[in-house]
Amino acid sequence: MSSASPLDALRAAQRPGPATPVRPHMLVAGATGPLGNEVLNRVVGGQKYALVQVLARERYTEGLRGMQLLPQAGDDPAQWPLQIAEVGLIMFEPPRPFYQRERALWTPQPEQLKAVAQWMRSCGVKTLAVVLPHDMGSLPQSIRQGLANVDEQRVAALGFERLILVRSAREPAKRRLGNFLQRTAGMLLSALSYMVAQSDRPVRAMHVARLVEAALLQAPEGIHVASPERVWRAAQKDGLHAELQDWLKARHGS
Q1: CATH class given for the domain over 22-251
Q2: Which of 182, 187, 211, 229 could lock 177 by a disulfide, CB 3.0 to 4.6 Å apart?
Q3: Under a CB-based contact definition with an 8 Å cutoff, are residues 70 and 56 in contact?
């Protein structure tokens, strides 16, 4: 049995190995609240991205490997310096007051959606996911699976290769009611909330995070809108894979 010569061994060692996939960079706006925290842990911990940069108001020591806070001066994205990224994620859940890390982060207001998306597009982002919360039972049937307003239409017109909109239901904010009529109206509205369909009720943050993470990795080119019903079905036992197949693959024409 012949053995390889030293020259053959040297040539073999110099041959290039299999190409290592280049992991994209991600920009995140609004990594606050239970949902933002859950999504951030998944996209950073999953190690699918070379670097996850999170927009912040101030510097804060962060121990997550693969994550970097990106302090911005002011609330006007048009004035922010450009970064280099291929993937973007925008969420609107407000920070929890007792979490110092979350108080240091920058969270957009709904009216800033188009400006933040435009800044991310200028940074080179090709895939954008937006988690759009709404009070349960308040979203008209006609816009659940399409673009809901002018801002969303403007974002869609920015030229992203992949645009993912996830409509996540939330509990209505509690209001302080003063006089008798206000309290009576509050009681009636509270009673009506029990009539909301189960599939339109909020689901746990971890389930929404799983759907967002998977959609970012699997969505083909185009615009993909996840209705509240789809988010709810994906949260059920063994429902995520089936919903992704029905939502993303069907739109891809397979």
Answers
A1: alpha beta
A2: 182
A3: yes
